[in-house]
Write a structure and sequence with these properties.
single chain; two-stranded parallel sheet; 44% strand; 1 helix; mainly beta; 12-stranded mixed beta sheet
Amino acid sequence: MSQKIDRLSPIIVSVLLSSGLLSWTTTTTAQSCDAGFVTQNDLLISVTPTGSDDTTNLQCAIDTAVALPGASIKLEPGTFHTAQLVANDLHGRLMGSGEGKTTIVSLPALAYDEQWMDSMPSTTNVWPSLLTFVGGDFEVSDVAIRIVGDEPMIAPPGLDLYTALDAAVVIVGTVARARFDRVTVEGEAHADATAFPFGSNVNNG
């Protein structure tokens, strides 16, 4: 059973974190794009779904766009399957191929470290959120995000109750400017509606 969690119509978001978090530093790990599915034409980076795990190609496309201010990542029509993704200071666009044509679906058994909040999200410290933006000035459009599975997260030891995805999309950083157009977030109702605070497999859209 699917449950629509949220629809993000045009909004501008500014995010300010408390001073206690401003000492965080970020790290990235280079990812390699598969040229058969990721192409670049000047500032346009196009990604085609592989039909299996698209995490590496998506992260590679994001990292490439981060290095090219003003770049656009175009997700071609179809369904992308991914683990957690991190965009560190993206100044550009992440766009699907039209409303209802591009879907990002969570892979099963997503993992995170119990000390995840001790440092900023990165490819080596993924947070319990599917798509995390660290700062930046960006736009996301024409994408449907689906969180699937009764318990999409593998909880660290001692956190057995935290098997729901904390959020589909998270924005952190000292200052971030973001715009979301025609973006939907959809989760699934949990078999035991009392198991999670919101009765679904994602706590926040």
